[in-house]
Amino acid sequence: MEGKVYQAGEDYEKEFSPRDYLDTFYNFDSGPVAEREIIKFSLQNLHQTFSVGGIRGDVLIDIGTGPTIYQLLSACEVFQEIIVADYTPQNLQELQKWLKKEPGAYDWSSMVKHVCELEGDRSRWQEKEAKLRRTVTHVLKCDVTKTPPLGSAQVPLADCVLTFLAMECACLDVETYRAALRRLADLLKPGGHLVTMVTLCFQHYMVGPKKFSGVYLEKETVEKALQDAGCQVLKCNCVPLKYSQAFCEGLCFIIARKGPSA
Predict the structure, then answer these.
(1) pLDDT tens profile 147-171
(2) How would you classify the pairing of strands 210-213 and 204-207?
(3) Quick one: which of 240, 241, 236, 242 has its CA closest to 224?
(4) Helix residue ranges per DSSP H, the chain
(5) Which residues lie closer than 8 Å to 48 by C-beta, 6 or more apart?
(6) Alpha-carbon dihedral of residues 53, 109, 65, 101, nearest 10 degrees?
(7) Helix (H) or strand (E) holding 258
(8) C-alpha span between 116 and 135 (Å, rounded)
(9) Which residues sit opposite 238 in a β-bridge?
(10) How far apart are CA 262 and CA 254, in angstroms?
């Protein structure tokens, strides 16, 4: 339907195309300059967080993984186990294609090489891909608007919960977002870290010909939601980078730590 705007929930199951999404936002070699700069910003912050910054442990849970693996390329070197989860079945299917090295899987090699270059050895990109495939132990369905977000899946408390450019799409309003962050904090061990990237002042984005909406978040709203979820904000790196295929005002990379008794 011309002009239709799709929202969180069933619209994603019915209308979201993982391959259109990947082609639009993750074409690292020949995609739009704006998208490439955002990918570089993301990978640099993740490298600083995990490779340099010392956030490590046994278990990392990635909520709202989507069909992507770039956000796990640094973390797979410092966590024993990574659990990935998404709401949309077709995203999980696309993800499994890459994890199982199936024909037609998306080619992430350019980003993998870029991360290896950040780490000092571009030549070990195939080793890194193999390491990530070994480290991902579970691929789960999640719904951050429900308690618990991982349903009946039995998972250990995490040393780190990662959620990248997902929560603003999964939540229809600020109260739903605040409640969802509390659920994510519940997945953490005391003292564990919540690492997130948020699209600021987000209104909608295009996936192929389809427009998807989300919740409008300002930096202060995100910080307050994290604090109310029992987390202390340790780092907040906001930049005015904007997508060519999304209506927003910038991006914010945030690291928060759950309190000892939260």
Answers:
(1) 999 999 999 999 999 999 999 999 9
(2) antiparallel
(3) 236
(4) 10-15, 18-25, 33-46, 89-99, 109-119, 125-135, 167-170, 174-186, 219-228
(5) none
(6) -130
(7) strand 250-258
(8) 17
(9) 252
(10) 19
Cβ proximity of 207 and 22 under 8 Å: no
- pLDDT value at residue 246: 85
CA distance 195 to 162: 5
CB 245 within 8 A of CB 238: no
Are 32 and 244 within 8 A, CB to CB?
Answer: yes
pLDDT at 177 over 60: yes
Q: Residue 247: which pLDDT band, with cuts at 50, 70 and 90? A: confident
Report the chain's C-alpha Rg in angstroms.
17
> Residue 211 contacts by C-beta under 8 Å, 6 or more apart in sequence?
4, 5, 6, 204, 205
With 0-12 / 13-18 / 19 or more C-beta atoms within 10 angstroms meaning exposed / middle / buried, residue 106 is middle
Contact (Cβ atoms closer than 8 angstroms) between residue 257 and residue 242: no
Over residues 3-10, the mean pLDDT reads 89
- Give the C-alpha separation, 244 to 250, whole Å: 12
Structure tokens at 15: 């209308």
Over the stretch 128-143, which tens digit does the pLDDT of each residue have?
Answer: 999 999 999 999 999 9
CB atoms within 10 A of CB 90: 17
Give the type of residue at 168: E
Do residues 262 and 217 touch, judged by C-beta distance below 8 A? no
238-251 burial, b at 16+ Cβ within 10 Å, e below that, comes to: eeebbbebbbbbeb
Lookup: tokens for 205: 């984005």
